[in-house]
Amino acid sequence: EAKAAGRDRAVTYDAGLRERQLERTELVERLRAALTAEQFTVYYQPIVTLGTGGFDAVEALVRWFPAPGELIGPDRFIPAAEDSGLIVALGEWVLRQACRDAAGWHRQHGTAVTVNVSPRQLMEPDYAATVGRALRDSGLPPAALILEITEGMLVGAANQEDRTIAQLSALRRQGVRVAVDDFGTGYSSLAYLRDLPIDILKIDRSFLPSGEPGAADRQLSFVRTIVDLAHNLRLAAVAEGVETPAQVALLRELGCDKGQGYHFGRPRNAAETTEVLAAAQLTAALPVGA
Ligand code: C2E
Ligand code: MG
Ligand code: MG
Ligand code: MG
């Protein structure tokens, strides 16, 4: 009887797996069509210098609008795009769009732009050339572009790490900066910090103290340790997922360089971002006490 039940479960599992594979294939086909139909949009979220409150950069975050009024977030389609390889085309589209949008913001406000990069893109032999072309075509200076890589993605074939190092070095020689995204959530974090040529460390939001009194001590030592780690390695520290004024005060106290999160602003489309940046500059230009 147990054997029969086991067999049943195996059959159910296989059917579920097949269904998921079918869904995946369908999703990839829809994504491919969406790229041609220009259903993707890049949103931007501010990254703020904690010392001054100034908008230092914006992070480009892709959104999918499959139909009017319908929005799908990247967590629901980036994994499929990565598995299928479609991320190479989608990622290049995001990069070019982000550079174009940011060129004007950089001219007017000195704002930089950060773009998320998938492992598959970094493994393309001509990726550094792709980035160089996006910069030239948009007029955005290399110093105003930051590429974000997630450490989880770097786990893989033995020579993948060498290739990643070579690619990142080539990009940095062009003057582009590199950030490690979601630091602390992947594998071998410290080994990567030691070996990879990087400039910025983005602390995953799961490390931010919630602000609730009591359990805060241990959380606090953790963030402090990561900020100090970044500074000892001469990296800038950016806190992700900042949602409350208490967290801002705390991060300032710890000497964290920058913050990003709903407290400073949600991701918005390019037109809204243009307004947000102009308003921020106006506020900054006001004389104290005005
Ligand atoms: P990420 O690069 O770590 O981006 C930060 C995510 O946290 C964004 O989610 C952002 O909307 C969200 N977030 C920002 N502030 C807060 C906050 O205060 N609280 C909370 N709870 N969340 C906050 P989003 O836009 O859904 O993107 C999810 C992930 O998808 C990104 O994580 C990134 O890994 C990936 N992604 C987005 N765009 C691209 C892209 O163009 N290419 C690639 N390869 N991945 C992308
Ligand atoms: Mg990111
Ligand atoms: Mg992140
Ligand atoms: Mg993330």
TrEMBL record:
<protein>
    <recommendedName>
        <fullName>Diguanylate cyclase (GGDEF)-like protein</fullName>
    </recommendedName>
</protein>
<feature type="domain" description="EAL">
    <location>
        <begin position="24"/>
        <end position="281"/>
    </location>
</feature>
